[in-house]
Write a structure and sequence with these properties.
The longest helix has 14 residues, at 3-16. Strand 4 (111-119) and strand 5 (124-131) form a beta hairpin. The protein is built from three helices and nine strands. A five-stranded mixed β-sheet has the order 1-2-5-4-3. Strands 6-7 form a two-stranded parallel ribbon. It has a two-stranded antiparallel ribbon with strand order 8-9. It is α/β, with parallel strands linked by helices and 250 residues long. Helix content is 14%, strand content 23%.
Length: 250
């Protein structure tokens, strides 16, 4: 742990006290967590206080924790015949539009917004995480009045995850098409999507129609170049192959 990160962590805990739900130094980075009710006050002080001087907001990311640490590919063993896990559905990858997802992670709220801050003056970086209190209607305050650069970042998190940023002056989609249904980075969004589009030569325009492909998850196999898995290998080492042309003249 670098002394710079340790000093930042101690300053954060000393300044914000109980308003920090957690403060962790790991992998050379400092990450703090605050409640949605304290987000604006904490962010304003992180921006204004010369001790921190985080004058730049580099990014805002949404996170869906509904399947956190829950995956059908998680394993500690392997076999010589391939991977059997993944054959039985264990995640929401096979969902179709209208299917009910099976959320299994219950140790934390489903949605969170993560902010990445930079202080050029102090040469410091900070990650701030804020969980949404309501899974059905995820809402956090917009920090656009503190960092104007979050305008498009918050729109992106809204578009992809459906997180609402209260106070944003123009919260609308930024990446998906007009009339897009749902939020594509949510874990319950079907990988095959809801609709497909094609050009109709008779109507001479692009039309949308229900998706026609079936959801599936490929099951990879591992082919090992190892004699232990070659059952037709010669019984004795150095045994001549009589079917090989010219073997008698060797």
């Amino acid at each position: 742990m670098s002394s710079r990160n340790q000093q930042l962590s101690e300053a954060l805990q000393r300044t914000f006290g109980d308003r920090l739900k957690s403060c962790v130094v790991a992998a050379g980075e400092v990450t703090i967590e605050v409640a949605a009710a304290d987000l604006l006050a904490v962010c304003q002080q992180l921006h204004d206080d010369e001790t921190f001087a985080f004058e730049q907001m580099l990014d805002v990311c949404g996170i869906d924790y509904s399947e956190y640490k829950c995956t059908e590919w998680d394993t500690e063993v392997s076999t010589n015949t391939g991977f059997s896990r993944g054959v039985t559905p264990g995640a929401n990858a096979r969902l179709r539009f209208g299917d009910a997802p099976a959320y299994r992670n219950t140790d934390r709220p489903r949605f969170a917004a993560v902010y990445h801050l930079l202080s050029v003056r102090n040469n410091q970086r900070l990650r701030l995480r804020c969980y949404c209190d309501d899974d059905a209607m995820p809402v956090v305050p917009s920090v656009i009045d503190i960092w104007a650069s979050v305008n498009w970042y918050e729109r992106e998190a809204f578009d992809l995850y459906g997180i609402l940023f209260e106070g944003h002056p123009d919260l609308r989609r930024i990446l998906t098409d007009y009339g897009f249904v749902g939020h594509p980075f949510r874990k319950d969004f079907p990988l095959i999507g809801h609709v497909e589009m094609r050009y109709d030569p008779e109507q001479k325009r692009v039309i949308y129609q229900p998706v026609s492909i079936e959801p599936r998850v490929l099951v990879p196999r591992v082919i090992r170049e190892d004699n232990r898995y070659i059952h037709d290998a010669p019984a004795a080492a150095g045994e001549a192959d009589t079917d090989t042309p010219g073997a008698d003249n060797a």
